[in-house]
C-alpha cells in the first residue's frame, strides 16, 4: 500500500500520503501538532465513479453537503415524526390495532436502529470508510421503506367499514322478533370483523426496517462528516441547521398529512361524497404521502453518493507552506486507533483479524464507558428522549382526547408549532454553541436550565375540556328503555342526543327511526326517559344526530395548548446542538462517529423504544370501552379523557426529573482539559507526580 502511494506521489509530483500518516502516527505526544497541508488529489472530487467533471465541483463543499443532508433529514422527519403519529389512530381503526400494538409499530423503528447504528457507525467511521456513500445508501433505503409502508392499502381492497343507510336502519332499536335481533348481530359480527387485517402490522414493521436507515446514518456518520469538513467554531452551527431542518420536516409533514386526510381513503370514493371528515365513520387517506415522499427520497440519495471520503475544505489540499493545528483529542485518537493494531490486522488471516478487531472494539468501548461525562450525558439524553418520544408520538391523539381537537382541523396548528418551536430551538442551540465556543461547561449548564424549564411545560397535560355525559354498554344494558331493543354490542356508532348525552349507538339510545337526508334519529325512548327524569314535560325532543357530542372548552384553551407545545419543542431542540457539540469535544477525534452511534443506541434502547410503549400502555389504561370483535378485544372505542391527561402528566414529570438529575451529573463530572493540565503541572512542580 505504501509503495503504491509512493509511486503515485512520484508520478504526480505530489507529497507521499503514507509518509505523512506514518510520521503523524510516530509523532511524540503533544497537545497540538503541526501538519503540513498538501495539494488535493482526485479522490476528493465530487462525482460518481470516473464521472467527476469540473462543473460538478461547485457542489463539493460542506454547504452543499449540508443542503442534501437537510433534504434527506427533512423527508425522514416528515414521515417518522409527521405522518406516522397522525395516522396511528387511522391505522388502529382500519387494521384493528390497539394502542399498544400501534406503539409496538412505532418502536420497531428504534429497535432496528439499535441493531443497525452500532454497525453503521463502527464501519462507516473507519478512516477508509466512504461516509457519503453510507449516507446515500441510508436515504435510498428510506425511500424504498416509504413505498413498502403504503402497500397494505393496495392489497386490502376497498374499505367496507362505512355504515350504509340500510345498516343504519338495522342499528335501530328493533323492539321485535328476537330471532331477527340475533340474526342481525351475527351478520354484523361476520361482516365487520376481519382478524387477518391486523397481520398487516408485519408489513409496516418491515417498512420501519428500511425507514430507520436514513436517520441512523444521518445523525451519526452525517454529523461526524460535517464536523470533519468545517472549522471547529462553525461545527455547532452546521449541526444546528441540520436539526432545524429535521424540525421543519415534521412540521411540513404534519400539515401535508392533515390536508391529505381531507381525502377519502379510497379512489374512487364509493360513499358518493356523503361523508365528511368530522363524521364518526370517516376514514382519511393515510397512504398517499408515502409513495410520493419515497420517490423524493430515492432521488435525493443520488447526490450523497457523489461525495468523496474527504471534502476539500479540511483535507490536505492547500499549498505546501500552510499548516493546520491538530487538536489534542485528535492526536490521542490517531495514536490509539490507527497504530500497530490496525497495521497488524492488515497482515493476518481472517480469524486473526477478527480477533484483533474485537480487541480494538473492546478498547474503543472501554475509552467511552470510562468517560463519566459521556456516560451521564448519554443516559440523560436517553431518559429525556423517553418522555419526548412518547408524548410526540401520541400528541395528535392526546389533543383529540383531552381537548376534543379534530386531527384534520389541528394539523396546521401542529405543523406551525413544530416548525416555529423546534426549528427556532435548534437554531438557538446552534447560536449558543458558537457563543460559548468550545466551553463545554457553560453549554452543559444551559442544558440543565432548559431541562428544568421543560418540567414546567409538563403542566400542559393537566389541561382538560369537560366530557359530555356518556352512556356506554354497561349503563345502556341496565336501562329499561333498551330492554326490548336487542342491540348489537359489537356495533359502535355513537350518537349525540338532544339531551346532550352521548350514546354507544342509536339502538342504545332507544331510537326507532332514521332520516338519511339529515343524518338524524328520532323517537328515541332513552332520551324521552331522560327528560322525564328531569321533570321536563314540555318542549322536549327525543332526537339524536350521528357522531359524538361536543365538549365544553373555554376559547383560550386551544391557543394556550399550542403555545406551550411550541415552547416545549423549542426547549427540546435547543438542547440537541449543545448536547451533540459537547459529545464531539469530550471523546477522541477518531471515535466521534462511533461515540455518536453508541449514544444513539443508548437513546433508542433506553428512551425511544420504551417511551412509546410506556405512553401507549398508559393511554390504554384510561380506556373505558374496548371494541368487541366477536369475543376478541380490539381497539379502544372511547377513553376517560381526564384520566388520560393525569396519567401522562405523572409519567412525564417522573421522567423529566430523572433526566434533569443526569444532566446535572454530566455538568458536575465534566473537567476542563486545561484545568486538568494546569493541576497536573502544579502537582509535578510540587513533586507530587504519581509516575
From TrEMBL:
Subcellular locations according to the entry: Cell membrane
Its GO biological process terms? monoatomic ion transport; sodium-independent organic anion transport
Superkingdom of origin organism? Eukaryota
List all membrane-crossing ranges: 65-91, 103-123, 135-154, 200-226, 238-265, 285-305, 412-432, 444-464, 560-582, 594-619, 648-670
**Would I find Membrane among this entry's keywords?**
yes
Q: Which GO terms describe its molecular function?
A: sodium-independent organic anion transmembrane transporter activity
Q: Which keywords accompany this UniProt record?
A: Cell membrane, Disulfide bond, Ion transport, Membrane, Transmembrane, Transmembrane helix, Transport
Q: Which Pfam family would be a valid example here?
A: OATP
Q: Where does the UniProt entry say this protein principally localizes?
A: membrane
What is the topology of this protein in the membrane according to its UniProt annotation?
Multi-pass membrane protein
Using the record's annotation, list all stretches that form the Kazal-like domain: 485-526
Q: Which family does it belong to?
A: Belongs to the organo anion transporter (TC 2.A.60) family.
Protein name (database record): Solute carrier organic anion transporter family member
Species the sequence originates in:
Branchiostoma lanceolatum (Common lancelet)
Amino acid at each position: 500500500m505504501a509503495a503504491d502511494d509512493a509511486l503515485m506521489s512520484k508520478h504526480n509530483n505530489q507529497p507521499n500520503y503514507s509518509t505523512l500518516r506514518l510520521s503523524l502516527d510516530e509523532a511524540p505526544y503533544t497537545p497540538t501538532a503541526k501538519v503540513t497541508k498538501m495539494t488535493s488529489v482526485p479522490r476528493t472530487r465530487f462525482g460518481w465513479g470516473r464521472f467527476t467533471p469540473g462543473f460538478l465541483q461547485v457542489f463539493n463543499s460542506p454547504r452543499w453537503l449540508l443542503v442534501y443532508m437537510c433534504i434527506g433529514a427533512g423527508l425522514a422527519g416528515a414521515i417518522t415524526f409527521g405522518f406516522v403519529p397522525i395516522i396511528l389512530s387511522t391505522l388502529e381503526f382500519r387494521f384493528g390495532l390497539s394502542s399498544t400494538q400501534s406503539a409496538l409499530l412505532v418502536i420497531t423503528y428504534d429497535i432496528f436502529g439499535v441493531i443497525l447504528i452500532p454497525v453503521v457507525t463502527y464501519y462507516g467511521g473507519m478512516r477508509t470508510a466512504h461516509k457519503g456513500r453510507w449516507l446515500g445508501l441510508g436515504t435510498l433505503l428510506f425511500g424504498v421503506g416509504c413505498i413498502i409502508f403504503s402497500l397494505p392499502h393496495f392489497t386490502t381492497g376497498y374499505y367496507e367499514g362505512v355504515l350504509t343507510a340500510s345498516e343504519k336502519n338495522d342499528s335501530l332499536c328493533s323492539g321485535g322478533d328476537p330471532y331477527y335481533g340475533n340474526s342481525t348481530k351475527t351478520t354484523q359480527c361476520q361482516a365487520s370483523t376481519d382478524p387477518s387485517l391486523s397481520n398487516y402490522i408485519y408489513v409496516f414493521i418491515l417498512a420501519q426496517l428500511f425507514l430507520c436507515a436514513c436517520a441512523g446514518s444521518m445523525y451519526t456518520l452525517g454529523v461526524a462528516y460535517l464536523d470533519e469538513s468545517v472549522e471547529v467554531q462553525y461545527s455547532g452551527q452546521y449541526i444546528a441547521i441540520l436539526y432545524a431542518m429535521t424540525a421543519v420536516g415534521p412540521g411540513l409533514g404534519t400539515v401535508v398529512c392533515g390536508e391529505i386526510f381531507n381525502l377519502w381513503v379510497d379512489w374512487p370514493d364509493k360513499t358518493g361524497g356523503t361523508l365528511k371528515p368530522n363524521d364518526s365513520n370517516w376514514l382519511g387517506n393515510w397512504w398517499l404521502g408515502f409513495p410520493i415522499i419515497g420517490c423524493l427520497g430515492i432521488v435525493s440519495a443520488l447526490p450523497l453518493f457523489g461525495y468523496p471520503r474527504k471534502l476539500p475544505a479540511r483535507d490536505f489540499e492547500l499549498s505546501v507552506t500552510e499548516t493546520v493545528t491538530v487538536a489534542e483529542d485528535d492526536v490521542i485518537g490517531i495514536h490509539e486507533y490507527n497504530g500497530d493494531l490496525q497495521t497488524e490486522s492488515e497482515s493476518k488471516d481472517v480469524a486473526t483479524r477478527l480477533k484483533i478487531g474485537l480487541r480494538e472494539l473492546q478498547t474503543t468501548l472501554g475509552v467511552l464507558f470510562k468517560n463519566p461525562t459521556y456516560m451521564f450525558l448519554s443516559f440523560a439524553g436517553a431518559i429525556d428522549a423517553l418522555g419526548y418520544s412518547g408524548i410526540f408520538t401520541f400528541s395528535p391523539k392526546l389533543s383529540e382526547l383531552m381537548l376534543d381537537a379534530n386531527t384534520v382541523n389541528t394539523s396546521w396548528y401542529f405543523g406551525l408549532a413544530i416548525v416555529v418551536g423546534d426549528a427556532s430551538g435548534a437554531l438557538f442551540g446552534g447560536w449558543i454553541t458558537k457563543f460559548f465556543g468550545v466551553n463545554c461547561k457553560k453549554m452543559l449548564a444551559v442544558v440543565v436550565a432548559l431541562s428544568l424549564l421543560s418540567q414546567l411545560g409538563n403542566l400542559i397535560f393537566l389541561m382538560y375540556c369537560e366530557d359530555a355525559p356518556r352512556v356506554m354498554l354497561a349503563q345502556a344494558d341496565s336501562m329499561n328503555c333498551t330492554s326490548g331493543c336487542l342491540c348489537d354490542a359489537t356495533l359502535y356508532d355513537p350518537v349525540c342526543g338532544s339531551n346532550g348525552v352521548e350514546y354507544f349507538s342509536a339502538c342504545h339510545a332507544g331510537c326507532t327511526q332514521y332520516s338519511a337526508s339529515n343524518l338524524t334519529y328520532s323517537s328515541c325512548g332513552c332520551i324521552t326517559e331522560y327528560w322525564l327524569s328531569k321533570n321536563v314535560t314540555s318542549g322536549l325532543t327525543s332526537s339524536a344526530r350521528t357522531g359524538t357530542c361536543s365538549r365544553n372548552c373555554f376559547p383560550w384553551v386551544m391557543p394556550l395548548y399550542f403555545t406551550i407545545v411550541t415552547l416545549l419543542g423549542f426547549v427540546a431542540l435547543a438542547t440537541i446542538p449543545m448536547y451533540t457539540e459537547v459529545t464531539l469535544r469530550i471523546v477522541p477525534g477518531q471515535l466521534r462517529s462511533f461515540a455518536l452511534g453508541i449514544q444513539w443506541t443508548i437513546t433508542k434502547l433506553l428512551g425511544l423504544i420504551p417511551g412509546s410503549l410506556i405512553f401507549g400502555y398508559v393511554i390504554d389504561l384510561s380506556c373505558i370501552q374496548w371494541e368487541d370483535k366477536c369475543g376478541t378485544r380490539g381497539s379502544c372505542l372511547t377513553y376517560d379523557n381526564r384520566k388520560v391527561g393525569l396519567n401522562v402528566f405523572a409519567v412525564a414529570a417522573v421522567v423529566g426529573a430523572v433526566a434533569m438529575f443526569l444532566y446535572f451529573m454530566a455538568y458536575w463530572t465534566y473537567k476542563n482539559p486545561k484545568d486538568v493540565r494546569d493541576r497536573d503541572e502544579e502537582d509535578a512542580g510540587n513533586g507530587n507526580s504519581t509516575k
